[in-house]
Amino acid sequence: MVVQGVTIVSVLAGVAFVAWELEQNRELVRLEMFSEGTIANRATDLALAGENPALVLAKAC
Predict the structure, then answer these.
(1) H or E element, residue 51
(2) How big is the CA angle at 35 (ends 31 and 37), to the nearest 5 degrees?
C-alpha cells in the first residue's frame, strides 16, 4: 500500500511539473511575440521618420 501511495504522489507531482513547464513556455512565447512586434513597429517608425524624427515632424508642420 505504501508503494502505491508513493507512486500516485510521484505521478501527480510529475503531472503538476509538466503543467508548470507548459505555463512557463506559454508565457515565454507570448513575451517573444510581443518583443518581435515591438521590434517590427520600431523598424516601421524608423523607415517612415528616418534617423531624425524631429526633423520630419518640423517639415510636416
Answers:
(1) none
(2) 115
